Amino acid sequence: YLRIRYGNKIGMIACGIYILLAQSLGAIALFAASVGVAYVFQVEILWSTLALGLTGTVYTALGGLRGVVWTDTIQGIIILALPIVMMGM
């Protein structure tokens, strides 16, 4: 839409900003998860980051986007159902 309305230059700038922000968010999420894994398993953050990144890449490559969507759906159901189960205990 931006390219059509404001021209190719603005569209390319917006695309670059989006890529930068999306990659930054992914890197922050990966680092945050690897800090937790490194703490629990008493390994260096470098190794936990590499392990999590490689696992996510292989999982997405083998399962495709469909596999990722199914996993996210199941995790979402669990996250929503768990408080209800815990309140019943």
From TrEMBL:
Descriptive protein name: Uncharacterized protein
Primary localisation category: membrane
MF terms in GO: transmembrane transporter activity
Natural source organism: Ixodes scapularis
Membrane-spanning segments: 12-39, 45-62
Superkingdom, taxonomy of origin: Eukaryota
GO biological process terms, semicolon-separated: sodium ion transport
InterPro entries, alphabetized: Na/Glc_symporter_sf (IPR038377), Na/solute_symporter (IPR001734), Sodium:Solute_Symporter_SSF (IPR051163)
Membrane topology term: Multi-pass membrane protein
Keyword match Chaperone: no
UniProt GO cellular component terms: plasma membrane
